[in-house]
Design a protein that fits this description.
Layout lengths: L2 H4 L20 H13 L6 H8 L3 H7 L3 H25 L4 H18 L1 H8 L9 H18 L15 H18 L6 H17 L1 H6 L14
Helix pairs in contact: 2-3, 2-5, 2-7, 5-6, 5-8, 6-10, 8-9, 9-10
């Protein structure tokens, strides 16, 4: 392993502006995600959402043109909170392994706090009538892949890293999460991070650096923005 290479400063990742309001503070945003996850998009009516949110139908109609519009808006704002929290964790470290590890644990914390949003983003968003949900889902994966691929410049031989390396990494993670969610299995993301980091770091920095991920200290849980 080229130890000097692993200490190279990694460029920060760009963060989206904060959502206003945060989806966690918006009754309609929370309600639409919960209803669709529980009943499916086809089984959810606007009346179900407003009842669960405790707001009037007039309030819903003032803000949204349809159920799909409300669901996509909530998804967009959940993405923003996710990317800001994970990206901030990544940007808090200078070397790539530490930055990616911090981002991975921030992702795990966000997932554990927002299980319905995770389920919606992995499965239910694909059933919305608009393709925009699928597009934004893929853009979120690209955001994560960008953090992974910053390892290319940390390693001794950037040109030797396959171009598809970050895509394969994201695909494997997504497949694992989607499979567990569809089976109704519990997902405990923090527990799988050492294995995921071992595999990803091995691609970019080699076996010795990858082996150290098994014993790398996990950062304390991150906290949501206020």
């Amino acid at each position: 392993m080229n130890r000097e290479a692993t200490a190279r400063a990694v460029a920060p990742i760009e963060l989206p502006p904060p959502p206003d309001p945060r989806p966690q503070d918006d009754p309609l945003a929370c309600a639409v995600i919960a209803e669709i996850v529980e009943k499916g998009y086809e089984g959810t009516a606007v009346e179900d959402v407003v009842r669960r949110a405790g707001v009037s139908r007039e309030e819903f109609d003032r803000r949204f043109g349809s159920l799909a519009h409300c669901a996509l808006d909530s998804f967009e704002r959940n993405i923003a909170t996710f990317e800001r929290r994970v990206g901030s964790a990544f940007n808090s470290h200078n070397d790539w392994p530490s930055a990616l590890r911090a981002a991975a644990y921030a992702t795990a914390d966000w997932m554990q706090e927002n299980p319905l949003a995770v389920s919606f983003g992995m499965v239910d968003v694909l059933k919305l009538p608009s393709e925009m949900g699928r597009v934004r889902r893929e853009e979120t994966f690209a955001f994560c892949a960008e953090m992974i691929d910053r390892g290319r410049m940390a390693g001794p031989e950037p040109e030797a890293i396959p171009e598809a390396a970050p895509t394969f990494a994201i695909g494997a993670i997504t497949q694992l999460l989607t499979h567990r969610l569809q089976e109704g299995a519990e997902v405990e993301p923090r527990e799988v991070i050492p294995e995921m980091m071992n595999r990803i770091v091995g691609i970019y920095l080699g076996a010795e650096a990858a082996e150290s991920e098994w014993t790398a200290e996990a950062p304390p849980p991150t906290t949501p923005e206020i």
